Amino acid sequence: MEKIFDLDYYDYEIDEKLIAQEPLKERDLSRLMVIHKSDFKIEHRIFKDLICYLKKDDCLVLNNSKVIKARLIGYLNGKEVEIFLTRAISNDEFEGIGKPLKKFKKGSIIEVGEFKILVKEVLKGKRIYFCENYMEVFEKHGQIPLPQYIKRKPTKEDEIFYQTVYAQKEGSVAAPTAGLHFTEKLLEDIKNLGVNVCYITLHVGIGTFKPILEKDIRKHQMDYEYYEIPDETAEIIKSSKRIISVGTTTTRTLEFWNFDENPRKGWTNLFIYPSYKFKVIDALITNFHPPKSTPLLLVSAFIGDFEKVKEAYILAQQMKYRFYSYGDAMFII
């Protein structure tokens, strides 16, 4: 097996003190590492300097999916339990993961405030729940589902900052984090430059937290996630010379669509890893990702050499960049 397909190749050491635990209050003052693919020149800026690298008629594509309060704390037989919503089935039924899972038996009742949720079916590793208008329960009592490497409970502040300023369509259980750095003013300034700013939707699923378990990365299966590309966005992209993708979720959506090779709405489980040939995007804005993760493999595929990615990550740690969801950003051009 070639080393580029060996999961262990994509490991690196991370100083856990650099894993951002809190959001920056001034979103666009996060740091920005600019990497030039042609010669691997690296520049260190702040995020609002992004505008210095954009030009008239560029196309900036963002994911406007909105994070839902997918984590719910309730009581089963008087003991605290957790439900994590993973998929809507109907207005009254949903699929989710329960913790501790073995306590969630068919017929169990979970009490959440004034609401009662029934475990309707027991499946391998997950459960089907019944509750009339259950989204009302999640909206009233749910919590923003922060990643497990953020070692604290979510707060009201996370309902603002673990959400992009342009989020519109509810459905994600994790934020498209590359977009967290944008402010409304920065987006307005970018539009005033003559850049075409447009949106797709990909609802980020629980699979975003799923580790790769196969040593041969080619055997890994991504979960299916729902996406939509509006006709207006598709036509703007088709007529643009440079497509700048904001985040790995946007990238996977655009690359799957591939100029109408696939439908403009539907489900995708496209897994992008080294050896993949990009067909749509020309530049990528992204955060710094965990070792051996699917977003890291996508970034490695786009740069074309994980050794270069690793060099950038080592440099980022030396310069005290902040890592992961609430961390700093990288612009690869």
The helix content, as a percent range, equals 10-25%
Q: What CATH architecture label of the largest domain applies? A: 3-Layer(aba) Sandwich
Low-confidence region ranges: none
What's the overall average pLDDT, rounded?
95
The CATH fourth-level homologous superfamily of the largest domain: QueA-like
> Structural class, from helix and strand content?
alpha/beta
Number of domains: 2
Strand order of the largest sheet: 2-1-17-16-14-3-12-13-15
Describe this structure in words.
- The chain has helices at 134-141, 158-161, 184-192, 231-238, 248-257, 294-303, 306-318; strands at residues 31-36, 41-46, 59-63, 65-67, 71-76, 79-88, 93-99, 109-112, 115-123, 126-130, 169-172, 196-202, 225-228, 243-246, 265-268, 283-287, 329-332.
- The strands form three sheets. The chain has a nine-stranded mixed β-sheet. Strands 5-6-7-10-9-8 form a six-stranded antiparallel β-sheet, covered by helices on one side.
- The chain folds into two domains: 3-67 and 156-332, 3-Layer(aba) Sandwich (QueA-like), CATH 3.40.1780; 71-141, QueA-like (Thrombin, subunit H, Beta Barrel), CATH 2.40.10.
- The model has no long low-confidence stretch (mean pLDDT 95).
- Helix content is 19%, strand content 28%.
